[in-house]
Each structure stands twice: as structure tokens, then as C-alpha cells.
Specification:
The protein is of the alpha/beta class and 336 residues long. The chain has a four-stranded mixed β-sheet with strand order 1-7-6-5. Helix 12 links the parallel strand 5 and strand 6. The protein is rod-shaped.
């Protein structure tokens, strides 16, 4: 009979130990997220897990109680030293290591299957566990939510993409990380620098030669300036010149009524994106802190920063305008 009781106590010890590790490896935030996704296991586990202090007191009191009882019964079966060694081996291996190793790997599934047992334990330990849990609630407050930083979320995405069986592919990983990063970048990072821009002066005549030049450059939106290239006044849309044969027309006749944005190069990209959306424009003129025109940025540039891929269409001659600006600058320095 004593051996049977010891065996039952060791099984209970393993149950308490495994349940403690298993349930508390499931954070409340994660369970809420799984419930929103319709996980039936999380729906079963959450009502018990959210009462963290009551659950903790119940399982720990039960664990200590059965371990103490097992040691007492083993002391009646064998001598003090033998009982101590045997109880230690039984409790450590079968009451701690094995159940914790098992529950840690299958916490949610086992938690959902053993929720009935946990409710029985809570009912039995309630007179002692409840007052202790109330004390912990007063001293510690509610359990803290698990909040990840952007850097942590990026690492989570990378880990999931690299993991076997993940449904996140390389393209999704790149785009997700880009979406988390673009709000930290400034307009200066994505802008097309002034030295490589194709611009037109307001009073310039739209001759056949100029129209051919515009077509060859391939830009759909062309910045327009008045007198000085730093004095930007608007945008000309190349599509508005389709079918133009009247050589008496000038650039000013085709300046778009929609005004472009005038922004500083220190503006963050998420703010620029909001301006594009709210004001329904796709191009911005960029100025430095001294009010000098330094380049342009488009909605396409912002999207490229998010997806981390250069968007090149059949009309584009140059893939990377910033790289072209750097190369031209180096060439000018060498020539001078």
C-alpha cells in the first residue's frame, strides 16, 4: 500500500510540476491572439491562465504538499538515508525533469486536455490558494502584457522565415521588415538628388525638339521652375503633351493645377506617406534646413523603400538615381 501511495504521489508531483511550467510558458497576450484566430485550445486554457496568481498558488501548494508526503511515506518504508536518496531521485526525475520537458514542448495542447484536472486542483486548494492569490494581486498587480519592440518583431519574422515548415517566404519577410523599418528613415534616404533631375523652365517653348527630348528622358512627372532651378513652382505631366503639335505652346501652359508637396529632407517616410495620401499627390519637392532645393521624392520611392526593390518600368533608363548622382559627382571632382 505504501509503495502504491508513493507512486501516486510521484505522479501527482509530476503533474503539478509539468502543469506549472506548461501553463506559465503560455503568456496571456499570446492566448488572446490565438483566441482571435479561433484556436479552440486557447479558448479552453485562457479562463484559467488569466487568473495567474490563483493558478500559481494552487500548483505550487499542491507540488510542495505531495513532495513532502512522498518523502514521509518513503521514510516509513526505508531508512533515513535511503529514503532521502530514493525520494530525491524519484522526485527529480519523474516529478520534475520528465514532466517539465514534456509539458514545455506541448504546453497548449496538454493544457487544453488537462484543464479539467487543473479545475479540480483549484477547487481542492481554493481555501488556501485564493487568499494567497489575492495578496499577490494586491502586491504585484495584474500580469504584465508581452510587448515586443520593432527590432524583436523583425527577429521573430526572420526566425519564422528560416524555420522549417514556415508559411512566410523570403518576399514576405523582406516586405514585412521593410514596413517596420521605413518609418525610421528620412526623405533624404530615398530622394532623387537635384543634380540628376530633369527639369523645365516655366517660359520654355515646347518645340518638336523639346518634345522629343522629354519623351527620351522617360519621366512622367517633370518639375517646373521659374528663373532659378531652386524656385520650383509646379509639375508638368508628360501625358498632357500627348498629341501636341502646336509649337507656340510653352511649359507654363501645361503646369498641373495640383500643387506638389514642399517638405524638408528630414521628414520621416511614414509622415511623407500620410501627406501623399491625404493631399492626393504623388510627388514632393525637398529642401534642406537652409531652404535650398535638394531633390524630389515620389510615392513610388516610398513603396520601393518598403518592399526593398527598385521598381523599374519599360521607360526607365536609370535604375538608381542616387547612385547616378554619386557617380556624376565623382566625375565632376576628377575633371575639376
Amino acid at each position: 500500500m505504501e509503495y502504491l501511495i508513493v507512486a501516486i504521489l510521484v505522479i501527482l508531483s509530476g503533474s503539478f510540476s509539468g502543469l506549472t511550467l506548461g501553463f506559465f510558458s503560455l503568456n496571456v497576450t499570446g492566448l488572446k491572439r490565438k483566441i482571435k484566430l479561433g484556436d479552440k485550445r486557447a479558448i479552453k486554457v485562457y479562463p484559467i491562465r488569466k487568473k495567474g496568481n490563483l493558478l500559481l498558488c494552487t500548483l505550487l501548494i499542491g507540488n510542495v504538499a505531495v513532495n513532502s508526503a512522498a518523502a514521509i511515506f518513503l521514510g516509513e518504508i526505508a531508512s533515513g538515508l535511503v529514503a532521502g536518496v530514493v525520494s530525491t531521485v524519484l522526485i527529480v526525475i519523474f516529478g520534475e525533469i520528465l514532466p517539465q520537458a514534456f509539458f514545455s514542448r506541448h504546453a497548449l495542447s496538454l493544457g487544453a486536455k488537462t484543464i479539467w484536472l487543473v479545475k479540480i486542483f483549484i477547487f481542492l486548494m481554493y481555501p488556501i490558494a485564493y487568499p494567497l492569490s489575492l495578496l499577490l494581486d494586491k502586491l504585484l498587480g495584474e500580469e504584465l502584457q508581452t510587448i515586443w519592440s520593432k527590432r524583436e518583431i523583425k527577429e521573430i519574422i526572420k526566425h519564422h522565415q528560416d524555420a522549417k515548415g514556415s508559411d512566410i517566404d523570403e518576399d514576405e519577410e523582406r516586405i514585412l521588415i521593410g514596413a517596420l523599418s521605413f518609418s525610421e528613415a528620412t526623405v533624404k534616404k530615398i530622394m532623387t538628388p537635384k543634380p540628376v533631375l530633369y527639369t523645365l523652365e516655366k517660359s520654355m517653348a515646347l518645340t518638336q525638339e523639346k518634345l522629343i527630348e522629354i519623351r527620351k528622358n522617360g519621366f512622367t512627372r517633370i518639375p517646373i521652375y521659374e528663373q532659378s532651378e531652386d524656385n520650383l513652382i509646379g509639375i508638368l505631366y508628360a501625358k498632357d503633351l500627348i498629341g501636341l503639335f502646336d509649337t507656340s505652346k510653352i511649359v507654363a501652359d501645361f503646369i498641373s493645377k495640383s500643387k506638389p508637396l514642399f517638405i524638408k529632407e528630414t521628414m520621416l517616410l511614414d509622415n511623407l506617406m500620410n501627406h501623399f495620401i491625404n493631399q492626393k499627390v504623388h510627388i514632393a519637392f525637398i529642401f534642406n534646413d537652409f531652404g535650398t532645393f535638394t531633390g524630389i521624392a515620389t510615392l513610388e520611392d516610398v513603396i520601393e523603400e518598403i518592399i526593398k526593390v527598385e521598381i523599374v518600368d519599360e521607360a526607365d533608363v536609370i535604375d538608381d538615381m542616387q547612385h547616378l548622382a554619386v557617380e556624376q559627382s565623382k566625375k565632376d571632382i576628377l575633371e575639376n
